[in-house]
UniProtKB/TrEMBL annotation, chains A, B:
Xref: Gene3D superfamilies: 3.30.420.40
Signal peptide interval: none
Originating species: Rhizobium puerariae
One matching Pfam family: BcrAD_BadFG
Name of this protein: BadF/BadG/BcrA/BcrD ATPase family protein
Domain ATPase BadF/BadG/BcrA/BcrD type, residue spans: 6-266
Listed InterPro entries: ATPase_BadF, ATPase_NBD, Euk-type_GlcNAc_Kinase
CDD domains: ASKHA_NBD_GspK-like
């Protein structure tokens, strides 16, 4: 009987699955809804099974989840209770849950040493050195994740208030942000008081847009963010010795390179594959090898 | 019958009252508990009356609150509902509620033009120019109040995580902060996620302490904070034309001068009087003058 391997890339908005054979050849893919194991573990379980079943169907196979071995890359993997709850209820023969960063690293750099920086709403750097994994940053926007979408958006709101008060010159960026709040600084403050990372992050594309048009405040904010990323990449290089692939991933990955230091920019390369491909490769590595040993 | 005037300086931890005659001569003072009109207006009312009664007693007088005219400087004065509720229930003959900043300004610079910067858990600058009041900053630590105790404490926590990750060098400050959280970065993050301004601010004295000992991270954080204060004072000077008294008040006022720019440091002077004295002076100005006109 053929052994099947499932990779899952799950997050707050969608869940993607890939089905592979023992050689790691992807046979089919499937996609379903949100799979946030922290906020809604039962729905996450439903969508994980659904995406996996769709991957079987896309491969022209009748879904047999209980015969498949899976590696799931899920945000919230570091919260023990949620992981225990979900792991105990997964429909697969055997499965492990790793972080979304670990499958992204595997996809981006394959089996070699190297590092990725995921620059999206948050920022986290994941390094494989001498085969061992390590992450830095990624602690959240309140006290970490410099250069992240959340931090850039927050700096943009701050900038609009500095301009409102005449502490900084008013620029197009600040005008646009204030206009978005009815030119009422109190509305900016009320928003910021309760804003989640994604709420701040929604203001970040504006910063890149205005920076492209030469807006001094937007450029200064992005330079501040890029300096935070440069420092973190220096620390990454301190671990890797500057060896192996270095990839930026995440929503801001394509926007940042022109702002970061030349020493890092020239080291960047495109990811080899996506996180879903990384997940299925990890499933084959984890369970394919073990099955061989048993056989 | 002698007209009496009451000044109130009320906040989250205590309520102070001063009683003056029509010449503004302070006859007695009193102190009672918290008077936060937002979180507990009834208790605030109780403590306002209590402090005022004690001021009468300290002057050797039987309390006659209903005969006195009062100016109350209270935090939360910008929240209309709370002000209406409290104003309608005050025990005085007539009274007005102004911000704690306005009585501080009156106390610090008297009747002349000038400005104050209140640098405590938050930061706000209040300016009197050609007799008109204006404030800048003071929007809260999420998107304003650069250099405030809350921001400095937040930067110190951030610094400890940057050091933990090897992004910045580990210094005594970061070591001390991490040790305070059991050397568990997750504990720092959990704290920061829910921290109120005062929670962050409690880490700020450590930053000044370590900076005095030459700690590079602490000095960098204070330079960042001082740069925010310098920029705001530049904006203040833009309004005042650099004329009139300029006073720093608040919990960090005595600590900051050595870090701020020379152009501002040389302009600083000691406040003429405290906020309570400012409140009673405003009461005499507001109601003493009016009574004279009527007489």
């Amino acid at each position: 009987m053929t052994e099947y391997f499932i990779g899952i890339d799950g997050g707050g908005t969608s869940c993607r699955a890939a089905l592979a054979d023992g050689n790691g050849t992807v046979l089919g893919r499937g996609k379903s809804g949100a799979s946030n194991i922290l906020t809604d573990p039962d729905n996450a379980l439903k969508h994980i099974a659904e995406a996996a079943s769709l991957a079987f169907e896309a491969a022209g196979l009748r879904p047999r989840l209980s015969s498949a071995s899976a590696t799931l890359g899920l945000a919230g993997n570091n919260v023990g209770d949620a992981v225990s709850y979900v792991t105990a209820r997964l429909p697969f023969r055997q499965a492990d849950i790793v972080s979304d960063g670990v499958i992204a690293l595997q996809g981006a750099i394959g089996d070699q040493d190297g590092a990725i920086g995921i620059v999206g709403t948050g920022t986290i750097y994941i390094i494989r050195h001498n085969g061992k994994l390590r992450s830095i940053a990624g602690w959240g926007f309140q006290v970490s994740d410099l250069g992240s979408g959340a931090r850039i958006g927050q700096l943009a709101l701050q900038e609009s208030l500095l301009a409102y008060d005449g502490i900084h010159p008013m620029t197009g960026l600040s005008e646009a942000i204030l206009a978005g709040f009815g030119n009422d600084p109190e509305a900016v403050v009320d928003f910021a008081r309760l804003a989640k990372p994604g709420d701040f992050g929604r203001h970040t594309p504006k910063v890149f847009d205005f920076a492209r048009q030469g807006d001094a405040a937007a450029i200064r904010i992005l330079k501040t963010g890029a300096a935070g990323i440069d420092e973190a990449l220096d620390a990454v290089n301190g671990i890797t010795g500057g060896k192996g692939r270095l990839c930026l991933l995440g929503g801001l990955a394509a926007l940042y390179p022109e702002y970061i230091a030349e020493r890092h920019r020239k080291r960047l390369s495109e990811p080899l594959a996506d996180a879903l491909t990384g997940a299925v490769a990890l499933a084959v590595k984890a369970y394919g090898a073990r099955l061989e040993v048993r056989a």
